[in-house]
Amino acid sequence: MSLSVPRPAFGRAASPSDPPPVAPSFRPRLLCAVWGPKGGVGKSTVAANLAAAIARTGRPVLALDLDLRAPALGVHFGLASPGGLATLLGEAVTTDTVRHHARPAPGAPGVHVLTASPSDLLSLGAEEADRLIAACLDAWDVVVADCASPIDEATTFAALRAATLVYLVVDQDRVAVETAWEALRLAADAGIPRDRVRLVVNRYLPGYGIPVSAIEQYLGLRARAVIPAQPLAYLRAVQEGKPCGLSLNGKPDNPWARLAADALGTEAPAAPRHGFLTRLFRRRTREVVGRG
Ligand SMILES: Nc1ncnc2c1ncn2[C@@H]1O[C@H](COP(=O)(O)OP(=O)(O)OP(=O)(O)O)[C@@H](O)[C@H]1O
Ligand SMILES: [Mg+2]
To answer: Does position 91 have pLDDT exceeding 70, yes or no?
Structure first.
């Protein structure tokens, strides 16, 4: 990855010929790997909505589909399958070719998508996967990768190792939670630091399934976002090729805006103060939206 400012050596007094100090506005590159060992828990949904929510803050984002067996980001962002990774991998993988083959998402301003297509059944070796991720991070400041479930899939493994943050997605299904525990162990064995792993509980129904507090306790992780179950809204979003969270823009307690703030390490947008009756009415759902 190339940084525009040369890095001075540590433990040495500054000399007049040293480059100027990094400006306070310097923002390191960010790779969010969205992952979960169980199929269907909402990894692609979380990746698409996280990418769109980060872009809403004004930072351009590359949404990278690394689930080569079951790619979904093209559909989530309303882009036809052909093109993207399939074409890119037929050429040299460089910063320029990544920029060339990533396509702007029509319904999500600020998001470019590197799609994969289901028919290609691409598979990458470890070195190719590392090169792809490095080129993406060179081309974009912020990359959100939708990973496949198996940790030993080359693209997933490369993304998890390079990730600034790994968003581990579970739902309230016991299988999802138990396999997530095992996945955390495998990730630790593979040298992925645990403090980079952040929990997202998706498709949450208060009063059903495993409570969030029990999931947190079992996995030893605090949920950074709890996304309510809204089947119709998410089905419609996929149908329209536009992430669901965009329709929540400007609304208080938008969990995607909170998740974007978590990833960027910024303050989540403040929720407006509600009157007494509203607060009473919202008490049951507070657990769903009030975490961060
Ligand atoms: N918060 C939610 N509320 C309701 N439905 C949801 C929610 N999140 C995801 N879904 C739905 O659940 C299904 C699976 O979601 P998604 O494809 O994102 O999961 P996945 O983990 O990426 O699956 P795969 O393992 O196949 O890649 C989709 O139909 C999606 O619309
Ligand atoms: Mg998926």
So the answer is: yes
